[in-house]
Each structure stands twice: as C-alpha cells, then as structure tokens.
Automatic annotation (TrEMBL):
Entry's Gene Ontology molecular function annotations: phosphorelay sensor kinase activity
Name the UniProt record assigns to this protein: histidine kinase
Domain Response regulatory: residue ranges: 6-122
Superkingdom: Archaea
Pfam families hit by this protein: GAF_2, HATPase_c, HisKA, PAS, PAS_3, Response_reg
NCBIfam families for the chain: sensory_box
Coiled-coil region list: 679-706
Keyword GTP-binding: no
Amino acid sequence: MSDRIPVLLVDDDPDLRAVTASFLEREADRIAVETAPDAADGLDVLADRNVECVVSDYEMPGRDGLAFLAEVRERDPDLPFILFTGRGSEEVASEAISAGVTDYLQKRGGTERYERLANRVVEAVEKRRAERDAEQAVEQFRAVAEGASDAIISIDADSVIRFANPAVESVFGYEPSELEGEPLTTLMPERHRDPHLEAVDGYLDTGERGVDWSNVRFDALHRDGSEVPVSLSYGEYQVGGKRRFVGVIRDESERERHRAFIEHASDVVAVLSNDWRFRYLSPSCERVTGYEPSELLGERSLEYVHPEDREAVKAAFGRVDPGGDLPTAEYRFETAGGEYRWLESVGSDRIETDEVEGYVVTTRDVSARKERERTLASLREWTRELNYTRTTDEAAELAVEAVDDLIDAGLSGIHLLSEDGDSLQPAALGDSVPTMFEEQPSYDRGGDPGSRAALAWDAFRGEESAVIDELSTYEPLDESSPAESLVLRPIGDHGLFVVSSPEPHKFTDTDVLVAEILSGHLEAALDRIERESRVERLHGATRTLVRAESREDIAERAVEAATDVLEFSIVAVRLYDEAAGGLVPVAVSDPAAEVLPERETFTPDGGSLNWAAFEAGELRKFDDIRTTDALDADTALRSLLIVPIGEFGTISFGETEPGVLGGVDEYLAGILGTAAETALQAEARTRRLAERTAELERQNDRLEEFAGVVSHDLRNPLEVARGRTELAREECNSDHLAAVERAHDRMTALIDDLLTLAREGAPVTDAEPVDLRRVVGSCWRTVDTRDATLRSEAEGTIRADEGRLRQLLENLIRNALEHGGEDVTVTVGTLPDGFYVADDGPGIDPDRREEVFDAGHSTSQSGTGFGLRIVEQVADAHGWSVRAVESEAGGARFEVTGVESAE
C-alpha cells in the first residue's frame, strides 16, 4: 500500500480552508489534501475519490459537522473522521464522541494546532490501516484454520475461547459453536485448571513464559468425560489492541501417525490472492520448491509456472462452480534451483473479503508420479513391440534395450537355458557389459557356493525377484563383480533376466516393478515364439498323418510327431476296439516301452485314467499320478497328459519328473490330438467309401449279369414268337397277327431300354472333348426323323463320354418325335454351362414335368417310359443336371447344365 494519505478537508471559510490545507501538507508531506466548502460537496468528493481521513468544521451552512459525520458513517463506518471546529464545548464534544467521531480538535491557538491536527490525521489513518491489515490476517488465518486437520483455538486474555475450527470436534467432541464464548478450562481436567489460570496471569503480568510455547503436552478433557493426550503449540497476536492467543492442538494418540505423515508429506498449503499472488505459504514450501515461504510472499505465482502450462492453470482456477468439483491443475513449477518440477494443486476453499479475493490451495509434488506415468507409457510401448517379435534373439535384444531405456540399466542381460539344460547362456547384453566384463558372462549349473553362477542358478530356480542393493557387501557372494545394484528375475523356464548397475542402491521399488513387468512380457513372448516354432514343425509332421493308409500307420506317425517334434518322451496311442471292448494300445514310444509294463486293454470298468478322459471327451493333466489311483502309479511315470482323439481313442504323454507339463504342452498336444482325429476320420471315410465302391461294383456286376441273362432268355423266345407269327400269316390273314407283331416290337424296345438302364448308371470316368454340333448331326441321321426339321444352334466343345452323350441326345430327339408328330421342329442350342433340346409340339403339363423322368412314365402309346429316365441317368453319370421347361414355341424344352467346357 502507498505511504500517501489522501485527506478531505470540509470548511465553509475559504481562507481558513486554504490555510489549514497548506499547514497540513507542510507538517506532514505524506498528507495530500482535497477540499470542499460544505457537507454536500464533501459527500461528492467521497463518492469520486479515495479518501482515508475526513477533517470537518462543525458550524457550516446546510448540514453541520455532526450531520455530515452521520452520513459518512452510513457509507463507511470505519473511515477516520476528525471534527476540527472553532466552537468548543463539552456538549459538542460529547455529541461528536457519541456520533462516532475519531477525534475532536479546536481551531483556537497558534500554528501548533495544525501540527497536532496533522499528527492526529496520521495516527488515525495508520491505526485504520493496521486494523485492516489485522482483519485481512484474521481472514487468512480463518481460511487456513477452517481447512486444517488439527484443532485450532483462539482465546482472549481472560482465557475465553473466541474461535474454534471444525477440527475441534474430532479432538474434543464439541462443535465449534459450542466452545466459542466458553472458558478454555472447559477442555481441561480439574487438576490442570488452576495451574493454567496462574500461568496466564503470570505471563500477562511479567511477560515471562513458563513453558516452551512450541510444544506443550497435557491431558485434555473430551466432551464424554474421557481424557485425551494432546500436544499444543501457540502464539500471541493482537486484534484492536486486545491481546489474543492462538493454539494448534493435536490428538497425541494419533501423534506417531501424524508425525510420519508430516515428515513424509510434500503438500504445501498456500493462500493465493485474486491476482495470483502468494499471500501465505506453509513451511513445506521449501521442501517442495526450494524456496523459503518468505521468498515467495507477494510474488505472482503464475510467473513460476511453465509458460506452456499457464493457460491450463488459469482455466482450472478461473471457473468456480460453488458446490461442484474442486478446481484441480497439474503443471510444471520452476524451483529455486532453476529446474521445473511437476506439481498438482487443488483449490480447497475460496476467500472473498474487501481486501482479499482468492483461493486456499493445497499443492503436492507429483514429479515422481509423472515420471512413473512416463515410464509406464514407455513400458507399454516396449511390451507392445515384444508382442511382435518373431525370434528368441530379437525378443532378448528388445528386452535389454527396454530395461536400459526405462531404468537406466545398461549393465543388464538376458541369459537363456542351454539346450542341454546345464548352463545359462547370454542371449542379449547391455552396451556397457563388454567394457565392464572381461568375457561374456555365462553361468554353469553346479557352480561353487559363493560364485556368481551359484547366485544366478538360485535366482533361476526361485519364483520371486532377487534384489541386492550393494553386491560388494553381500555375504553370500564371494566372487567379485563389476555390478553393485542387482535384480535377478527368472523368465519362467526360459532363463534369467539380469538387471544391474555399477552404482549401489541404484534401483527403486518402481524400477524393480518395471523389471518384473518387462520380464513377464518377455516370458510370454518367448512362450509364444517357442509355441509358434513348435506348432509350425508340428503342422509339418501332422501333414503326414492324413497320408497314412491305416489306423496303425496313423498311430505310429502320431507317436513320431510327439517324440521328435514336441519332445515328449513317454507317448502311447490307444484306439477303441469294439471287439476287444476297450482302448487297445496300438503304438508306443521306445521310452514308454522301457518304463511302463506291457500294455493291456483299458476297459470301462478298469478304472484307468485313459478311459475316464476318453469317456468324458476332455483333456486331463496330472502333475503327479502318484497322488491318484492311476494304474501306473507304481511305475517311474509321474507327469501325465491324456488327450482324447474324438471317438477313436486317446494319446497319452508322460514324463518321469512331476509337474513338468505346462500350458504350452497342453496346447500342442491338443493340436496333435485334433490332427490324429482328422486323419482317423479321413481313414474311416476312405475305408467306408472303398467298401461301398466294392459293394457297388459287385452290385453292378450282378446287374450286368442279370441284364445279360434277361436279354438272352427273353430275346430267344421273342424271336421264336416272331417266326411263328410269320408262319401263321402264310396260313391265314388275320388282323390279330398285326397286333401281335406290334406287341413283339414293343417287347423288343422294352428289352433294349432295360439293358440301357442297367448299363448307363455307372459314373463317367473317361470323358473326352466332344464337338457338340457334330454329335447332334450324327444323332439326327441315326434316328428315323421322317418329315421332322432340325435347327442345330449348338456350338463349342464339351467334355463327355461320346457314346453315352449320343444315347442322351437320341432319346431326347425320339421323345420330341413321339410327342410332337412327324412334322415337328427340333432345336438344339447352347447354354452358358450346357445345352438344350426343344420342340414346337404340345409341350408338357407343368404339374407333370418332374414325373417325366420316372422309370415307366410315358404319355405315348408307342413309348416304353424309359427314354427320359435314361436321359437323366446319363446326365447323372456325367455329373450334370437336367430339367424340363416350356420352349419358346410352347413345346417341351430339356435343359442340361453343369457341363464342363473343353475349350
């Protein structure tokens, strides 16, 4: 605030007004006088100007000095007002004091009266300013106290409670309003009351403190009558010239918890004015920002916020929603050392008074959290890349790069178990390893106690991370090492993740967690790579299963795939044999034959694990069959995995060590079981198809034999009948003989069609390219067409058995002649996938178009009823389809489709 004191002088005497103003400004150069001739003009000046003190005459035209004072007090009850009058009396003085005048001076006397007036003005203004500052401090104190977690109580010199914050309820059980106005001894047991009052009186008399005000411990009295151990720190201040004491009280029963919180807390409580300036900062400010609170008081807080974050901070604290969410912002703050640190601020309360408008803000250092967030974001990116690696080396190299980037561990490495299982060999090493180690570190099984190899193998066999902060002082290790900080993390069964640094106590708990997460993703990647590799090799091996020619061959090949590709040692394939009444061993691996007794048939009532899995149709895994009632529980077999092969049987996979079959083994064994089931299904279909084909061939042979016998046995008597009819015609001429001859012709046609039906049903296996137009012309010339007309529009070459194609076309042409008459027009044309034969005859009833292909169906007296059945039979033998529709001329049209083009 400026040191200048603006004063309004109101006097109706212009000369005296000018003299008084000059003397005031000369006596105190801080005073700047604005004058007015009467109360009305004085009120106008107060409305337009900033005035800190009014000096007024008493007797003035219009309103007198006391009336002017009354109106001023309505506007500002605390504005200093000095009555400077030439009329002096006790009555005027009494009225002035009653009206609330600040001071009363008479104009009589020498020039010293102006000195007194100037002094009174300065004193009155400074007192008012001090009161305002005190009020502002009280408001700030109240805002901080209201949000404090400790009980805060203010008392006067009579030890009466004048203020209590909400936290008193949690300590004493009273609401603040219940304590305000009550003596402080309300909160004290009887034994403490008199000593307290004596101590207060002694301090007020002598000013000497009997105790350390910063840490007083005693037992306080709770509302329920119980005693509460508390600690108290207090101080003294003044309000309006009156002495006050304020104490911060903490429940001592929670002391240790609060102490731990305070010692480790990084929160800062601050009061920010409406123009973003610091008005108060708690002591933790120095720990968080490096500044002592006094260094920042009055400073504009936004100046310390990173330029890129200022708008976000202003936006967060600029929109106030009473009753809504508390304003919150994260931003970078420039510390005393010049670096930026991430802070998070939450506005917990808002102050609005005449002098202060702003927030109580709680701020904490979130730099570590932001760093963790950055680390976790990077970790997600690294682990995502691990998911796309395709080889073991690629995955190992990526993991080492990741751990160096995330936790600055360039002395790290991935050590994978060798094929013989006797050593942990480096698959990828950090950039610093070659410079720190004379040779690439590897760790053999069975290393001497105290060696690095023994330490590595102990960690590999364990399940948790081994964390060593200072390797040089680590007693179990005798061998020297360039590393000091060390984290050893097993990568499942694959190997060991070594994270190290030459600096001691390098890795935080977060670093260890990051290494563990990264190790878990590396294990998953190595599992996937191994699984994909084994699956690829397994697919190559299982392709041979479908080429096997018998169930026994499939079983043998499944055992080979399980031992050679999946690397199981004890494998057995059992297939269900209905005649044997159970699962019969068909193929076993060599180790199985050595370890297990001679295999027997597992029946439903035998109690075997194999039969139970087969019957349930689900995979069964046992970490140790010695804990079960398995038939092989007394053999060397321990780990067992049984995979059903559908309805065909089971494949058993076993090892002589317990608990060695994992999820990958289940997955791969399941693939092999599915492949074996598919192969057995194919073999069964092939076998059934071969059996059906053989049966059909036998049936065709019998049908051919029957057709030959029928043809021979029927034709001979028929020829005899024809001869006898000719002889009978020579002896007599009768109309009955003509009917007999027609019957003989029909019998001949029936015999021919029956033979055709018997021989045309076999599938076509020797189709050849055939010129469709040529065959149509040849068939037309073969059939007795009389006066019929052919329109051949057929084009192209198709694949067919030419002889059987002729049979089909001739039958369709004869059908057109039989139903269309001697002058019918027959059209043969091409379809996109076949051909058609149409006529302009009477056509076929739509309701009977499906029936015309039935054997024996005929609408002609001369027809046998087998012609169109033979057409359908020839089409089926080629794999074609045939249907009857209406032709463009209204006659019948037969469309043959599904025909393969030879062009």
